[in-house]
Amino acid sequence: MPTSSLKFIIDVGVGKKVEDFLYKSGYDVLSVREINPSMSDIKIIGIASKDNRIIITMDKDFGELVYNSGLTHKGILLLRTENCSGDKKVIILSEILKNHSDELEENFCVFSKDKLRIRRKRS
């Protein structure tokens, strides 16, 4: 079981293996794929904000929405893992949670080229 109370909403492109991994690890998980696969990014951000959920996505449009449109969020993890298998995404996410779970909330995080960049929310 996780030691934190992190809650997630998983965007469609991330994949079922990641959803299953988080669920089996004891996290509170919502799946956009199961709710409405064609849900807009703005609606996803709205649900995530209302329910205090961190968005896990592969969609770069979320950066545009939060930085240029000023939409508030509980945290966004953008996985730039377009060529990775579901199993590899699970390994990556497992390492991120192991080493950075306390930095995901309220921040915009991007995993790319084997590195996690964390853009902290301005106070």
What is the number of helices?
5
Termini separation:
31 Å
Q: How much strand content do the residues show?
A: 15-25%
Shape: globular
Strand order of the largest sheet: 2-1-3-4-5-6
Structural class: alpha/beta
Written overview of the protein:
With 123 residues, the protein is an alpha/beta fold. The chain has one domain. It has helices at 16-24, 32-35, 41-51, 61-68, 86-104, and strands at residues 7-10, 28-31, 54-57, 76-79, 108-112, 115-119. Strands 2-1-3-4-5-6 form a 6-stranded mixed β-sheet, with helices on both faces. Strand 5 and strand 6 form a beta hairpin. The N and C termini lie far apart (31 Å). 29% of the residues are buried. The mean pLDDT is 91.
Key phrases:
123 residues; alpha/beta; six-stranded mixed beta sheet; 5 helices; globular
List the SSEs and their pairings.
Blueprint: E1 7-10, H1 16-24, E2 28-31, H2 32-35, H3 41-51, E3 54-57, H4 61-68, E4 76-79, H5 86-104, E5 108-112, E6 115-119
Parallel strand pairs: 1-2, 1-3, 3-4, 4-5
Antiparallel strand pairs: 5-6
Q: What can be said about this structure in brief?
A:
The protein has 123 residues and is of the alpha/beta class. 41% of the residues lie in helices and 21% in strands.
